[in-house]
Amino acid sequence: MRLNKPEKPIPTDGCLGEITVPIVDAYSRVEKPRRILHRFYYGSAFWVLDRLVDENGSYWYELLDDRFRGRWYIPANSMRLVPDSELTPLAPEVPFRDKRIVISLARQTLTALIQDRVVLRTRISTGVRLPEGGFASKPGTFRIFRKRPCRYMFAPPREDYRGFDLPGVPWVSYFFKDGEATHGTYWHNAFGLPMSAGCINMRHDTAKWLYRWTTPNPPPNVYNYADRNGTLVVIE
Fold it and tell me: Do 180 and 151 share a structural domain?
């Protein structure tokens, strides 16, 4: 657990923040009376819109609810603002065509390569195949085409599936039009076993490294960024 000093004002375009405490409640507003709208967990990430002060002089952050385009409010000491230096590209001198990611469904691993040289290999969790058909990750060749540093991921429950409700999923790199992506994972640590609804789950630090290493390269102040020159993703 780490509490933070909210010393810096928020940039005009907003910035990324990471939850650094085990649990923090998100409220409907800063002023009382206020309602608890959600509960956030360590490692989740959100786009910060503003810094506010309550009647006791305590700082709060206003966060974007990117599912309903609303607002959440949390005590500012529960969040670390991510500096621009942690959002800059890794190995930007390497042409985007020389980078690729290979995901093994059988081994539950992800390997990042520059041409044929391995620069990262890590355990992951791909889509789990349910008895009814499920959400197994699709084999094929794709490219990363869109990135978000954080995203509210949601699917309603249905008769054959319990659904999910996951605000603040960090370091999201989309490679398939239906929403499949690589991203950080705060709700389980069973990497090496299929666990997801089609996405590629991994540890926060690995997802962050991959977000910075792959293309396209979003500017630090951009929440939603797309480009055609994305890193190749091979799922086999």
Answer: yes
- The structure's pTM equals 0.94
Number of other residues whose CB lies within 10 A of the CB of residue 122: 18
Residue 78 and residue 145 in one domain: no
Same domain, 182 and 67: no
Q: Quick count: other Cβ atoms within 10 Å of Cβ 172?
A: 22
Residues 6+ apart with CB under 8 A from 87: 16, 149, 212, 218, 220
Flag whether 5 is in a domain.
Answer: no
Q: Give the range of the structural domain holding residue 46, as residue numbers without chain letter.
A: 15-82
Query: Residue 19: CB partners within 8 Å, gap ≥ 6?
Result: 40, 41, 42, 43, 44, 45, 46, 78, 79, 168
Answer yes or no: is 155 within a domain: yes
pLDDT digits over 89-148, tens only? 999 999 999 999 999 999 999 999 999 999 999 999 999 876 555 678 989 999 999 999
Query: Which tens digit of pLDDT belongs to each residue from 8-17?
Result: 899 999 999 9
